[in-house]
Amino acid sequence: MRSAELKIQDIAFGGKGVARDAGKAVFIPFTIDGERITAKIVREKKQFAEAELIEVLEPSPERVAALCPYFGRCGGCSYQHVSYAHQLELKTKQVEQAMRRIARLSDPPMRSIVPSPLPYGYRNRITVHAQDDSVGFYRRDMHEIMDIAQCSIAMPKVNQALAQLRATHPRDGHYSLRAHSGPRVFAQTNDAIADALADFIATILAGENGLLIDAFCGAGFFTKRLAPQFERVIGIDWDRFAIDAARKDARPNETYIAGDVANELQRALRSDVAAGVSPAENTDVRVGTRATTLILDPPATGLSPELRRVIIDSSPRSVIYVSCNPPTLARDLAELQQRFSVVSITPFDMFPQTAEIEAVAHLRARDAAMIRADKTVL
User: Fold this and answer.
1) Beta bridge mates, 131
2) Does residue 324 carry a catalytic annotation?
3) Region 110-120: what's the mean pLDDT?
4) How far, in Å, CA of 326 to CA of 97, rounded?
5) In what order do the strands lie in the sheet with 10-11?
């Protein structure tokens, strides 16, 4: 192993600083763009190297003291050494870079990032691991449990639950600790940003009132808020427990379907209900479904190739794509642009102090003339 003096030029998606050493990219965690540092090269590959920070020689004015005593050793947070305002700047830049590089948008229609009202104490749930009398999280880059007394980004009720769990000396295993009761189905971890996200989507869709289809709907977080606005809403999810929860208090205009999302979405988009016309009039599926609004909130892996093809072939009029992984969002947008224009991209800071970023893309179906013109240019 060798050490090197480096200048941090950028912060990559995932939170590591990027420097250059003899023309090779070097990734160093817990650094900030503009800093001059010394680092120990710990892994060297043909195209890049990874290093560990030894000393900050010239600190950034954005460097702050971390609030958590476990920061740097725990594998959860990546940005506690960065001022919150600069975290927002970094995340905005990372989303925009992904849109340029992967989605091939020369001028991404970026909106301002929506910050979290609580930079700390915002998580409404955590999963801790118990092993050999230790209760906590995995250490950074290691499959080893780190004993922790509290989590600085978790809500007080969650930390109370953690204290109670620790007092029982639990058996080895995994334990989910939550601030809220209710069905154990997927829900956003930051209540304030989840509400801001739902309000934002409602504002974007203010003029839509026909059919809303919510793919990966979970227990109906978006559909239930938007149902009064639409004539009919259809929620689809693979998780039958989430669908059962959604069905319990469904309005007459709400339908929830458990099954393969691609298959069920194709059926919904091509049905006479989605088309909004009688079978005799439904001679062109695409014309009918252009009155449909589609919300997508997939896992971090994004949309499958099959699901992307279903959406392109059916072309709903409006698409809202909620993503917890900007690179896979950008990958999917690169293909969806065959039929859709990207109206806006809005980052949401769902996970302060971490490298995770939420982003919402608003797409509108392009008319046939625009699509033919693009093919002619190509």
Assistant:
1) 134
2) yes
3) 98
4) 10
5) 2-7, 36-44, 48-58, 24-28, 17-21, 10-11
Amino acid at 238: W
Tell me which of 77, 151, 217, 324 is the catalytic residue: 324
CB 216 within 8 A of CB 242: no
What spatial distance separates the first Cα and last Cα of the chain, rounded to whole Å? 50
C-alpha span between 374 and 378 (Å, rounded): 6
pLDDT at 166: 95
Q: Compute the mean pLDDT over every residue in the chain, rounded to the nearest whole number.
A: 90
Helical H runs in the chain?
A: 84-101, 156-167, 191-204, 221-226, 240-248, 261-270, 272-275, 285-289, 305-314, 326-336, 368-377
Q: Which of 107-121, 236-250, 264-278, 334-348 has the lowest mean pLDDT?
A: 264-278
- Of 22-26, 139-143, 371-375, the poorest mean pLDDT is in 371-375
Whether 299 contacts 326, CB under 8 Å: no
Look at residue 274 and tell me whether its pLDDT is greater than 50.
no
Between strands 17-21 and 24-28, the pairing is: antiparallel
What pTM was estimated for this model as a whole? Answer: 0.90
pLDDT of residue 184: 61
Radius of gyration of the chain (CA): 23
Query: What is the per-residue pLDDT across 168-221, written as a single tens digit (0 to 9) for each?
Result: 999 999 999 999 876 666 678 999 999 999 999 999 999 888 999 999 999 999
Q: By the 8 A CB rule, do 345 and 109 touch?
A: yes
> Around 293, how many Cα atoms within 13 Å sit in the side-chain half-sphere?
23
The span from the CA of 303 to the CA of 297, in Å, is 9
Partner residues linked to 130 by β-bridges:
135, 173
Strands (E), 115-238: 125-131, 134-138, 145-147, 173-178, 211-215, 232-237
- List the one residue out of 113, 38, 157 whose CA is nearest residue 350: 113
Report residue 121 as tokens: 């104490």
* Tokens encoding 218: 């979970």
Query: For residues 109 and 303, what is the distance between their CA atoms, to the nearest angstrom?
Result: 21
| List of E strands, 279-366 | 292-296, 318-323, 340-348, 358-365
- Rounded to 5 degrees, φ, ψ at 164 are -65, -40
